[in-house]
């Protein structure tokens, strides 16, 4: 699909569908449409009681008065409530509706009010992302017949005034890179766990490094090396599996460096729960337990093409959580890489064991300015925030604010959660320094974050628990079922503004 900027009259472009937008109760005249078409729109709006509310849309066939076959008018709701999240949602919804006509060419007229409220570049970026992200499908394993059924839109024209083209071009380019990265992460999550083993993730990292022509440096540590580093908590998780663990480290440094940031992605390529085995129902989606790792890889894939003043280190402690003969057992006590001992009471709380050692490794060797982790860590966070919002825990107000700003711009929702010290009591062990699950049944997500905090020393840290948003069990405007690519655009946007 090609996205082209068109500073021309939308009416004259020959396409299958022309998409335009309307604010609530502002069904006035569209200056670029002829009187005849405008009359048609007003009649239809009156007849169908179309008010321009969010979700509302009208489809017309104006005939000779329009070069496009169909005219689709999408409601935007009230102007004062406009934000970039809604821009993406309405473009994605309109685009999905337009696709019902199996179009080859679609024209989209960008709304003028958007440009008064948001920068041209960010508006066009949002529109581009909405088109790309809503068009994503994972069809690799479908039959040829079914693949042939799917007709892709080949050209999208974005209409806007000529003066906006230079900034809009930047927006299209960024939007394409951001969505390419997000879709790359989606692909990795959607692949079955039999494919995305720790070794496979290491191979992907190798390809990324090669393609970057030396800009992304790569180090892969094997089991023996991991053992030498004393990362016993991480290794303990890998023990029950036939798959070898791989500690994947990526590094990117631009010419000018403002900050050194480290990102850690939870990389459990399949989470059975280990000996604390999950029920079939809970295991169904556990190929997604490497969504943090997928996001880290996706970020490094596009990093060389973005203009960022940044030193970024990515770390993925990849392994599989299986209940094999050598598996970690409840009651086992592990000495982690920073010396703290951990009593394992539930082998299904494995993510924090791998992340704890990954943090210690980064802090003792790389000493980053900021540490951020992305982890499908707890079901409890999903209970609290649902499928579309990630929990954010942080030891730094600056990090929190910047991540919140990035979340507003990208529309990937996050919510600040408390690192309440009073609950530390719940993860104290009788026989070791820490226990890997909380006492009692409450505050599962907070105590998981408190556990991780024990391994961050004084490095400003932010933790994103995103088991809900990482994997969609129902389709939404921007995301089909399955891997969502959540976190990729959020962090890329965050890096733009550090
Ligand atoms: N990977 C899961 C968390 C998860 C659950 C992510 C559902 C996405 C959807 C994690 O390793 C886990 O199993 N956590 C346990 C922790 C419990 C044993 C303390 C949980 O949340 O049930
Ligand atoms: Zn688990
Ligand atoms: Zn897990």
Structure, described:
The structure is a single chain. With 498 residues, the chain is an alpha/beta fold. Helices cover 37% and strands 20% of the residues. The chain has 17 helices and 20 strands. The chain has helices at residues 35-48, 84-99, 112-117, 120-135, 144-149, 165-190, 198-211, 223-228, 232-238, 280-283, 291-302, 351-365, 379-385, 397-410, 444-453, 467-470, 488-496, and strands at residues 2-6, 17-22, 57-60, 70-75, 105-109, 155-159, 216-221, 246-253, 259-265, 267-271, 310-321, 333-335, 341-343, 370-375, 389-394, 413-416, 434-435, 461-465, 471-472, 482-483. Strands 7, 8, 9, 10, 11, 14, 15, 16 and 18 form a 9-stranded mixed sheet that branches. A hairpin with a 5-residue loop joins strand 12 (333-335) and strand 13. Helix 4 packs parallel to helix 6, helix 6 packs antiparallel against helix 11 (291-302) and helix 14 (397-410) packs across helix 17. The radius of gyration is 24 Å and the shape is elongated. The chain starts with a strand and ends with a helix. Bound molecules: ligand BES and zinc ion (ZN) (2 copies). One zinc ion binds at residues 268, 271, 289, 350-351.
Core attributes:
single chain, 498 residues, alpha/beta, nine-stranded mixed beta sheet, six-stranded mixed beta sheet, 37% helix, binds ligand BES, binds zinc ion
